[in-house]
């Protein structure tokens, strides 16, 4: 089947869907409120299924050439002693967000993406066979269709990159907060911190994000201090962490919701970008294989809603466990035992 699509949002899900449909011979219009692709952003984890999706979209080789492969990591205490060694079981590739978005946008003809184009009224959209809503976690389309709003996780995230290579993946868990370090690319380090919201001063505090991070993590182990010392004037992204309560469907009429619009999740499992790519490729393949739009959208919803909902719930649990404030020795013992059992398996 071939047809026409309007895609709301030029993030990962929107660009992947647009690229896939264009390759299948569809007419596509993408409407994006921002002025263009971002030129900064932290590293995203690409699991094997996400890499397969990128291969199907024709950009796997480019993403591999700009990524760093990892196969395991370490879970640490604030003093640097090891809680557990985490064998990922399969490779994950870390790719900077701008690299991924640029690869997805490449070869999309000029004029397909309308930048600086916020959508406030669906009645003014171009006529199309399908509307793809990929506007992110605050999706007005999802809210209008299902009344589902983002919900707070009770944590606040800080993230950025600093110069210098990272020696693998580590995540350090302390009371009510964590600090993660991964490679960004061969010469730079990606870092992220997550803190229980009730441990933070009001956002009106005169302290900068860097000052606050040094207060919270300045006595942690050497690798964390190395990142803190390198912050300088590098950009630091601060945001309240949210996820999306599972909606009753990912489709309504001729509209499909994808990516964070459908299943915004806590970042703790490193699965958000992967799930968005899987949404896009499943939807594209359903639309090109099914005889009609309604059947394709049913196929998409059947394939994606249940596994994505499970991942949202697991990510929410991981966010809670990793920033727990009580029973930390019990938590750490359980994590160490789970790591040991996974290696035996």
Give the gist of this structure.
With 345 residues, the chain is an alpha/beta fold. It has helices at 12-23, 48-56, 60-65, 97-105, 140-146, 209-217, 222-230, 260-263, 272-289, 293-322, 328-344; strands spanning 4-8, 27-31, 43-46, 68-76, 82-96, 113-114, 130-133, 150-163, 169-174, 177-185, 188-196, 237-244, 251-252, 255-257. 38% of the residues lie in helices and 28% in strands.
What does this structure look like?
The chain is an alpha/beta fold. The protein has two domains: 4-70 and 94-152 and 243-322, 3-Layer(bba) Sandwich (FAD/NAD(P)-binding domain), CATH 3.50.50.60; 153-240 and 326-344, D-Amino Acid Oxidase, Chain A, domain 2, CATH 3.30.9. The chain contains eleven helices and 14 strands. The protein has helices at 12-23, 48-56, 60-65, 97-105, 140-146, 209-217, 222-230, 260-263, 272-289, 293-322, 328-344, and strands at 4-8, 27-31, 43-46, 68-76, 82-96, 113-114, 130-133, 150-163, 169-174, 177-185, 188-196, 237-244, 251-252, 255-257. Strands 3-5-4-9-10-11-8-12 form an eight-stranded mixed β-sheet. Strand 1 (4-8), helix 1 and strand 2 (27-31) form a beta-alpha-beta unit. Helix 2 (48-56) packs across helix 9. The radius of gyration is 21 Å and the shape is globular. The N and C termini lie far apart (44 Å).
């Amino acid at each position: 089947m071939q047809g026409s699509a309007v895609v709301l949002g030029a993030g990962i899900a929107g660009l992947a869907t647009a690229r896939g449909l264009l390759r299948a011979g569809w007419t596509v219009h993408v409407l994006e409120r921002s002025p263009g692709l971002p030129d900064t952003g932290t590293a995203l984890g690409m699991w094997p299924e996400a890499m397969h999706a990128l291969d199907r979209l024709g950009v796997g080789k480019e993403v591999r050439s700009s990524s760093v492969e990892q196969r395991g990591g370490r879970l640490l205490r604030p003093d640097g002693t090891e809680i557990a060694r985490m064998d990922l079981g399969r490779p994950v590739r870390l790719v900077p967000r701008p690299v991924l978005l640029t690869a997805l946008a490449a070869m999309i003809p000029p004029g397909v993406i309308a930048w600086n184009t916020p959508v406030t009224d669906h009645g003014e959209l171009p006529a199309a066979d399908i509307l793809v809503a990929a506007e992110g976690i605050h999706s007005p389309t999802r809210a209008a269709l299902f009344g589902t709003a983002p919900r707070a996780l009770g944590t606040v995230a800080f993230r950025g990159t600093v110069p210098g290579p990272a020696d693998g993946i580590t995540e350090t868990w302390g009371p009510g907060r964590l600090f993660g370090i991964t490679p960004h690319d061969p010469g730079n380090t990606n870092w992220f911190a997550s803190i229980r919201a009730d441990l933070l001063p009001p956002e009106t505090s005169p302290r900068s994000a860097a000052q606050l991070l040094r207060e919270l993590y300045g006595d942690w182990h050497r690798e964390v201090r190395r990142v803190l010392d390198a912050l300088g004037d590098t950009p630091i992204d601060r945001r309240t962490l949210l996820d999306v309560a599972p909606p009753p469907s990912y489709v309504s009429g001729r509209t499909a919701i994808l990516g964070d619009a459908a299943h915004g999740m806590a970042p703790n499992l490193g699965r958000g970008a992967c799930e968005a790519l899987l949404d896009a490729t499943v939807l594209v393949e359903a639309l090109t294989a099914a005889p009609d739009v309604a059947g394709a959208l049913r196929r998409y919803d059947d394939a994606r809603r249940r596994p994505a909902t499970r991942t949202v719930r697991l990510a929410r649990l991981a966010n809670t466990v990793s920033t727990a404030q009580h029973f930390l020795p019990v938590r750490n013992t359980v994590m160490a035992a789970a790591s040991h059992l996974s290696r035996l398996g």
